[in-house]
Structure formats: structure tokens, C-alpha cells
Amino acid sequence: MEDKLHQRIFVAGHRGMVGSAIVRRLQALGYSNILTASRDELDLTAQPQVQAFFARHAIDQVYLAAAKVGGIHANNTFPAEFLYQNLMIEANVIHAAHQTGVHRLLFLGSSCIYPKHAEQPMREDALLTGMLEPTNEPYAIAKIAGIKLCESYNRQHGHDYRSVMPTNLYGPNDNFHPENSHVIPALLRRFHEAKVNEDPEVVVWGSGTPMREFLHVDDMAAASVHVMELDADTYAAHTEPMLSHINVGTGVDCTIRELAETIKRVTGYTGELRFDASKPDGTPRKLLDVSRLNALGWQAGITLEAGLQDAYQWFLENQNRFRG
Fold this sequence. Notes:
The chain is an alpha/beta fold.
């Protein structure tokens, strides 16, 4: 155990929401040799820099959490950047890991890899069975390519590169931008500002009936480390060579109305909650099948309300970042 805790682990994307949570998790477990690099120190889209970085450091494991991410507006506006940058990041890191003899790597993807009309809850074998959601297709294609890169390096070179696909994540270090954030940080900020301004109501787009699954990022980090630490035989027994990714989620969803009501309670907002049914709802339901992960001995432990309280507290402590 002590030798394992001294392995040199590179967490790519350590300043992002997921990467920072993985660093916290590893530190809590006693790992003492965690390697990180800021964007100024290492441009992951630049192959020579990545190759030199891996050659310079004797890396034992890699958590590949770095990615260009954004909401629907950003994905629609900059599809070329989302496809190019994510392809470059994963190709450079995975290939450099191979070149320098890194045997174990964990690639973090997204539930958007699954077809727009995939059967619910979405199983791992739904991959590549239908058309993707058009608004984030470039990002999804890049993440699918990352899964297939891992599988291909495993098949050709005998590595142990694994992939995890999280559901909708939230928590500390989330993006609370008023226009470009996802639903939980957007609503946390909206309800908070409505409370401060004593607004009589908060309007939420849509009917409130769509169902979504949400996972606190600390649970995501715990699941990632759990999957990474599984012995090769156990992991292989629950995956397939050409279907090696694992869904990560709670296995439980809620309506957007239930989410908004919980956020109203967490933030202490006392005004009215109104839904604007003239605005689009989006996909009726998005839920991951997490039976494969559960069979590997892990399940989520942070309830939605407890997770929202934690995320709101982090926002309160860091809201100066988001002014303007």
C-alpha cells in the first residue's frame, strides 16, 4: 500500500472542477506524489510540449481530466475549437503516456457520447448506435475518440487505459457564469441573486417536467479513483475490449421542478417559483445505467440536497470571481 501511495500520478486538468476534485480525493487517501501543470506551464494541445513533459517526469499513472468544456451556446458557437482542442489534448496525452511506458491511465468523458434518442437509462452498449445530439456533436465525437484511443492502445500495446463517462456534474470550482453555465450553477446563482435583490419571483425555462441526473463532483472523483485502483482482472471482468468505458452517476434522476424547488430551499429564497412553458424543455429524460459501476463495488454517496448545499456554500465563498 505504501508503495502505491508514492506512485507519481499526473492529473491533467487539475484546475478544473473534476481535476481539482480528483486531486483532493488522492490527497485525502494519502497519495503523496501528485504531479500537476498549469496551462501556462504545459499546453496539452502542443505535442512537443506534452512529449517533453512526459519524458522529463517518471509518471506511473495519468488521470486525463483536461478538456475544453462549455454549455450549449459555446458548443454551437465554437464547434471547431471544441473538436480540435479536445482531440489534441487526448491524443497528445495518451500517446505520450504510451511512449514513456505509462501502463495505467483514466480518461474522463461525458454522457453526451450516447445517441440523442438512446433508450433510458443509457447503457454503455448504446455507444455508436444512433445520431448524437446536434448541439454538442463535436465535443461528443472528441470524447468518443478518446474512448477508442484508450481501447486501441490497450489492444495493440497491452496497456491498461480505462474510461469513465459521468452524468451531469456540479460542485466546487463549477462555472457560475450567468450565460454559459449549466443548469445547477445557473439556478444557484439566479436564486441567490433573487434573494439578495428581494425579487418577487424566479422564472425557470420550460415546463419543469424533464428529468435529469446529477452527480456531485466529489462523488465523481471518488468513483474515478475507485475505477483506477481496481485490479486489471476485476476491471476486465466487467468490461469488454471494445466496450471498455464505465458510466458514472447516481442511477437516480429528478424533474427540473424538483431540482428548482430544492435549490430554492437551499438558497433560502422565499419568493415565487414560476415555469415558462413557452421555452423549450429539451430531451424528456437523461439517465445513466450505472449497474456496471455498482457491480464493481461503488455507488454514489452524496444526496442531491447535501451536494447542492456544498455547492452553494462554495459559491458564497467565491462569488467575487463571478461578478460582472
